[in-house]
């Protein structure tokens, strides 16, 4: 077990390193001069050069990178001169919102996807199945930002059930979570259907039926718990994917999370903020990947011992 | 918040009913103080919603219309404007005495003014403040306004440790010496950058001063929830008797204008910081319930296409003139729902020195084509323009694209974020720039503000705001003369030929002069108006009728 | 979804939003296999419906100039109300067929823009996906087949690229390179290939140990030869499926980038861009948002349906 952890951690290091290097290079080539932006539009050329020197922007690239990584590893992700606040502070402020949205989204995905998938599998081949899968396909096909706008329009404006964006209460979380989750719900429905179909043909289910137990009982007592297992694992895997995916949802609903922050950063060419958010989100993805692998390793002994 | 919502909502209903019965007369916008039948009442709290985040409350750094009015809540300057454009003393006891040659200004400070940390204001604070703005380490965008002070350039270049021309003569007297006479200096002492900051608080907070400001102003910052809202409360020890009227003001940020409008309609907020979105404009202007809830003020600004006079083919006068004839300005006004007026010259109509008799270049695509032929470009050419990517600027640029296509010019639009546009334009990297969203709005009511910083030789530097990269020595010399001219009428008359020559040289295509519209709750009033010609919103004189 | 514990590649299951078929046939059965797959496809009504839709959409893209009532970039004087608002459908308003779906914020005909927008979506979707599949298949198969350092380096590199949030990476790249249709294609391809690489990697890993490969090598085939001649053809089903389903994802990606303002530049019509321009009117002129979105959804749906059908036809055990 310990070897598994160590091995994954060691494997993660070059990945994280690579991410930081690539991001740093990307930012370096952005067409805006950070020293000029820091100094302000009316500073003289001499002033800008001085600031460039102070920010260390005239050092060779690898030195700049090392300085930056030094600061990152000590928790300092830089200072956003456009927002006049430390990047780390800003990220810490926004993370809870994105987390709320992610969990809300996963909740919606499971809430809608699981029953639909289960019903489709149980009613396999019949209209329930067809309808379920058809709706699932539509859900997957609709672009998330469009769904969000439609929900905003129908459930926020035409029928003012929910607030129109912003935060403050659970009601504010509903529409963004729906938007974030609907696309994924469709996918979960399909997965749940496959998983349930596998279980339905298993021996112990047939035994239960042969024993004369009623179908409903069989489904809820035997099929459901086993069908859900892999799905729950997949929900965990969803988290890193969500982090990238919430960007659009946060944009539509003005949700003050990390995704929207990243978009703002790129739009306003806020170099330290871009660096900070990209490294941060990539880091989260890598680390949650490790944690999930570990979780699966703990759950499934075959993985723990049988790895090549 | 819920209780307040109900309360405000109830008030709005009540007032609407009352006004329907003709029971309430709204205060008419005027430039007279305490006019009309309404006397301001003390008390009340309001919420105002903005789309953009507020970056900083540091007076030396803030330079946009979101943070300027907020900064004025927390800080004061030596001078200020009355409800119009006339200067009057604020932290200064009286208007300063000016020396014979117009280079030495002596201010006597009011006694007993305290910062909100308890310490009394002294002349040293003023010296510290202006020096700080000039200090390159601060990175203040307003440094340029004070380079006329003697010794400022040496200080900025690191050749001196203090600015020679700023002296504290005693605890209550400050003296400024300029390198050359400048009648606009007083305006510069009323601008946000000159607002006085306490040294010990700035040093204690360091980079964080913009988020933890301490000043002498009518309000105190109570709470700042990053990315969400800022709450200000009345300063009980404010030196101006009777001000402010409101008990507290909350600024919400990150709220899109259409959401803000709906919140205003529901009574959840009392004012929108951004103009109501175009999509709703027709609806609310035709709705009688909205009659007293929209305040419109023409802005003292010009939105223009800056033409880079150093980049071919725009170095040819005929091409620039062709551009002026090719643009359909009425269409732009239409695309802006009529919330602007066509501009034909550099100065906006409300700026003193505006030339009523000047007619400018009329819309004439045929004339444009013949001018291009004269310049040898009858087959047209390709070029590009940069616009900021905030709605509605891209759609205005697409209108330009079609206009130019009609005269044979292929225009590529580069929609970029504001900092990119400012950067590229300031460094002469783009042939054309649409200043929509970045319109040049007056810093103070003097025509020089529309010449020196944006079309003068001194601003024709990398990173400067002279996006046309234009420098005409004759015009420059004339402007220096005019800065020293003390006879106001002669000055204003003198600017007319100056700006006319700029238009003859077709350095810009002036397109529109903007209008600022504020949607607000019926009970919210300004004294006399919510919008101020210099400060945009003036929070200290807002009041709530109960 | 079977968990193959022997070939546990921890990340194989992770990001496959569209599962790939596990290939069961041997190389010898290839031609019979394909014709059987084709028959299955023909008999699947959903897949056929999807195919029809796809063909219809391609036709629309090709025939856009013929089908559109106007030039999609022309801003009409009478395309706006006197106070500058977009106009609703003239058909519904007064039976006039001038602007069947109404106009946008610049007074341009919405129907024409939607029809022409099909071209952008298809061009970007197809080309970007081709690029992604090519790169992904190459990386995945080389890594799995040759093993050793090559495998470690390539797969770690793939991991790294996958860790970047897709949209953010795309945005940053476009911000550096200035948006244009070719840059968009390049960027989407450069960001999307990792998913395919993963899938192909897993597949080649299992194929590598198969008897027919060992047999071929025993008979003297070189490693590269074996890879190309014996393994790659087995990947065709996966590649075909991803080649189709991937278009759906890429169309959505292009729409997302345009929605964020960094897609194709004006005045070229793009569905995502149209939604972005129209979103501030979603209350007073919702058609500006609804119709382009429907177009995206329909296109993505068509490719998803067809792609699903292909996958089912090529590997019925998945049903």
Helix content of chain B: 25-40%
Average pLDDT level of chain B:
86
Q: pLDDT under 50 segments of chain B (min length 5)?
A: 1-36
Helicity of chain C, as a percent range: 55-70%
* Protein chains sharing the most extensive interface: A-C, 64 and 56 residues
* Low-pLDDT segments, ≥5 res of chain C: 1-28
Following the backbone from N to C, one meets helices and strands of chain C in this order, namely HHHHHHHHHHH
Tell me the fraction of residues in β-strands of chain C, as a range: under 5%
Strand content of chain B: 15-25%
Assembly annotation? heterotrimer
Shape of chain B: globular
Shape of chain C: elongated
User: How many strand segments of chain B?
Assistant: 23
Discrete helix count of chain B: 16
Termini of chain C, distance in Å? 11 Å
Radius of gyration of chain C: 23 Å
Structural class of chain B: alpha+beta
Largest sheet of chain B: 8 strands, mixed
Q: Average the pLDDT over all residues of chain C and give the rounded result.
A: 81
The number of helices of chain C is: 11
Main sheet summary of chain C: none
Give a structural overview.
The complex is a heterotrimer of chains A (308), B (546) and C (319). The mean pLDDT of chain A is 77. The two termini of chain A are 14 Å apart. Chain A is mainly alpha-helical and 308 residues long. Chain A has helices at 2-28, 34-39, 45-54, 61-73, 87-122, 127-141, 144-158, 170-200, 203-210, 215-253, 258-267, 271-299, 301-306, and strands spanning 79-80, 85-86. Chain A has 13 helices and two strands; from the N terminus they run H-H-H-H-E-E-H-H-H-H-H-H-H-H-H. With 546 residues, chain B is an alpha+beta fold. In chain B, the strands form six sheets. In chain B, strands 12, 13, 14, 15, 16, 17, 18 and 19 form an eight-stranded mixed beta sheet that branches. A five-stranded mixed beta sheet of chain B has the order 8-9-10-1-11, with helices on one face. The longest helix of chain C is centred in the middle third of the chain and has 37 residues, at 110-146. Chain C has helices at 30-42, 45-67, 90-94, 110-146, 148-163, 166-177, 181-208, 211-218, 223-259, 271-278, 287-314. Residues 1-28 of chain C have low confidence and may be disordered. With 319 residues, chain C is mostly helical. The interface between A and B is large, with 40 and 43 residues.
């Amino acid at each position: 077990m310990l070897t598994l952890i160590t091995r994954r951690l060691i494997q993660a290091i070059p990945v994280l390193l690579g991410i930081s290097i690539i991001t740093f290079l990307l930012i370096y080539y952005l067409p805006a001069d950070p020293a000029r932006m820091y100094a302000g539009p009316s500073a003289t050329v001499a002033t800008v050069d001085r600031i460039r020197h102070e920010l260390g922007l005239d050092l060779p690239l690898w030195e700049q990178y090392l300085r930056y990584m030094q600061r990152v590893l000590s928790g300092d992700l830089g200072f956003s001169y456009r927002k006049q606040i430390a990047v780390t502070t800003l990220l810490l402020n926004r993370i809870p919102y994105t987390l709320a949205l992610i969990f809300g989204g996963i909740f919606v995905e499971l809430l809608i996807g699981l029953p639909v998938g289960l019903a489709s599998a149980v009613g396999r081949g019949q209209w329930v199945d067809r309808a379920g899968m058809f709706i699932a396909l539509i859900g997957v096909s609709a672009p998330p930002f469009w769904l969000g706008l439609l929900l905003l329009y129908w459930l926020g404006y035409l029928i003012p059930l929910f607030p129109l964006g912003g935060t403050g209460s659970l009601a504010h979380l509903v529409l963004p979570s729906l938007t974030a989750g609907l696309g994924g719900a469709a996918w979960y429905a399909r997965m749940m259907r496959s998983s349930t179909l596998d279980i339905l043909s298993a021996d112990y289910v047939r035994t239960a039926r042969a024993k004369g137990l009623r179908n409903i009982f069989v489904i809820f007592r035997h099929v459901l718990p086993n069908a859900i297992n892999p799905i729950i694992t997949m929900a965990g895997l969803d988290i890193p994917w969500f982090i990238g995916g919430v960007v659009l949802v946060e944009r539509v609903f003005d949700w003050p999370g990390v995704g929207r922050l990243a978009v703002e950063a790129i739009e306003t060419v806020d170099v330290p903020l871009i660096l900070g958010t990209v490294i941060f989100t990539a880091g989260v993805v890598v680390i949650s990947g490790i944690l999930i692998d570990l979780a699966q390793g703990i759950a499934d002994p075959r993985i723990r011992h049988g790895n090549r | 918040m819920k209780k307040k919502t109900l309360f405000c909502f109830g008030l709005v209903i009540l007032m609407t009913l009352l006004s329907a019965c003709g029971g309430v007369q709204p205060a008419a916008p005027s430039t007279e103080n305490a006019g009309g039948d309404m006397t301001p009442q003390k008390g009340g709290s309001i919420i105002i919603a903005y789309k953009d985040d507020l970056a900083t409350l540091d007076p030396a750094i803030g330079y946009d219309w979101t943070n300027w009015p907020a900064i004025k809540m927390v800080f004061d300057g030596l001078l200020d404007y009355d409800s119009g454009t006339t200067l009057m003393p604020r932290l200064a006891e009286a208007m300063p005495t000016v020396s014979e040659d117009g280079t030495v200004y002596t201010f006597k400070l009011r006694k007993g003014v305290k910062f909100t940390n308890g310490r009394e204001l002294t002349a040293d604070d003023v010296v510290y403040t202006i020096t700080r703005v000039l200090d390159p380490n601060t990175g203040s965008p307003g440094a340029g306004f004070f380079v006329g002070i003697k010794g400022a350039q040496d200080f900025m270049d690191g050749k001196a440790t203090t600015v020679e021309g700023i002296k504290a003569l005693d605890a209550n007297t400050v003296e400024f010496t300029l390198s050359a006479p400048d009648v606009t200096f007083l305006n510069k002492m009323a601008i946000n950058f000159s607002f006085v900051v306490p040294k010990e608080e700035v040093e204690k907070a360091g980079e964080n001063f913009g988020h933890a400001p301490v000043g002498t102003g009518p309000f105190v910052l109570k709470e700042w929830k990053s990315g969400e809202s800022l709450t200000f409360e009345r300063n009980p020890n404010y030196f101006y008797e009777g001000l402010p009227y409101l008990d507290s003001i909350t600024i919400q940020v990150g709220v899109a204008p259409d959401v803000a409008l709906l919140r205003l309609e529901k009574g959840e907020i009392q004012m929108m910081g951004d103009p109501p979105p175009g999509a709703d404009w027709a609806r609310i202007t035709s709705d009688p319930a909205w009659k007293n809830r929209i305040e419109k003020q023409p802005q003292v600004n010009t939105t223009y296409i800056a033409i880079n006079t150093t980049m071919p083919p725009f170095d040819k006068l005929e091409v620039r003139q062709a551009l002026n004839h090719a643009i359909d300005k009425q269409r732009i006004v239409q695309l802006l729902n009529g919330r602007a007026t066509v501009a034909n010259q550099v100065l906006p109509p409300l700026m003193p020195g505006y030339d009523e008799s000047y007619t400018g270049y009329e819309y004439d695509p045929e004339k444009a084509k013949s001018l291009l032929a004269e310049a040898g470009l009858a087959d047209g050419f390709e070029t590009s323009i940069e616009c900021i990517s905030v709605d509605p600027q891209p759609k205005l640029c697409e209108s330009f694209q079609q206009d130019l296509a009609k005269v044979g010019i292929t225009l590529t639009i580069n929609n970029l974020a504001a900092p990119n546009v400012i950067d590229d334009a300031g460094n002469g990297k783009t042939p054309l720039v649409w200043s929509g969203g970045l319109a040049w709005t007056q810093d103070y009511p003097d025509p020089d503000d529309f010449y020196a910083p944006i079309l003068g030789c001194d601003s024709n530097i990398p990173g400067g705001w002279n996006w046309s990269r234009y420098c005409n020595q004759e015009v420059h010399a004339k402007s220096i003369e005019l800065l020293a001219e003390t006879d106001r009428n002669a000055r204003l008359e003198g600017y007319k030929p100056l700006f006319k020559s700029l238009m003859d040289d077709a350095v810009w295509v002036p397109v529109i002069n903007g209008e600022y519209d504020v949607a607000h709750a019926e009970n919210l009033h300004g004294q006399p108006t919510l919008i101020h010609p210099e400060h945009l919103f003036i929070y200290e004189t807002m009041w709530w009728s109960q | 979804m079977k968990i193959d514990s022997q070939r546990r590649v921890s990340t194989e299951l992770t990001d496959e939003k569209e599962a790939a078929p596990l290939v069961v046939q041997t190389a010898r059965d290839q031609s019979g296999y394909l014709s059987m797959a084709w028959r299955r496809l023909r008999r699947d009504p959903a897949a056929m419906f999807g195919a029809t839709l796809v063909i219809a959409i391609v036709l629309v893209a090709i025939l856009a100039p013929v089908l559109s009532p106007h030039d999609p970039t022309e801003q009409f004087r009478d395309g706006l109300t006197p106070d500058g608002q977009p106009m609703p459908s003239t058909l519904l308003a007064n039976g006039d067929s001038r602007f069947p779906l109404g106009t946008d914020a610049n007074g341009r005909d919405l129907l024409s823009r939607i029809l022409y927008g099909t071209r952008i979506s298809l061009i970007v979707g197809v080309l970007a996906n081709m690029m992604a599949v090519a790169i992904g298949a190459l990386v995945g198969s080389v890594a799995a087949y040759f093993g050793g350092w090559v495998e470690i380096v390539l797969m770690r590199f793939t991991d790294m690229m996958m860790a970047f949030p897709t949209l953010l990476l795309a945005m940053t790249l476009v911000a550096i390179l200035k948006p244009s249709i070719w840059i968009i294609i390049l960027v989407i391809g450069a960001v999307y290939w990792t998913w395919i690489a993963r899938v192909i990697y897993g597949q080649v890993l299992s194929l590598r140990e198969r008897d027919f490969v060992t047999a071929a090598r025993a008979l003297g085939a070189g490693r590269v030869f074996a890879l190309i001649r014996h393994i790659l053809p087995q990947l065709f089903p996966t590649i075909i499926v991803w080649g189709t389903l991937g278009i759906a994802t890429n169309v959505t990606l292009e729409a997302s980038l345009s929605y964020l303002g960094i897609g194709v530049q004006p005045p070229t019509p793009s569905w995502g861009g149209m939604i972005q321009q129209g979103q501030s009117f979603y209350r007073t002129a919702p058609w500006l948002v609804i119709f382009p979105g429907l177009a995206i959804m329909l296109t993505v749906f068509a490719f998803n349906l067809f792609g699903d059908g292909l996958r089912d036809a090529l590997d019925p055990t998945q049903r």
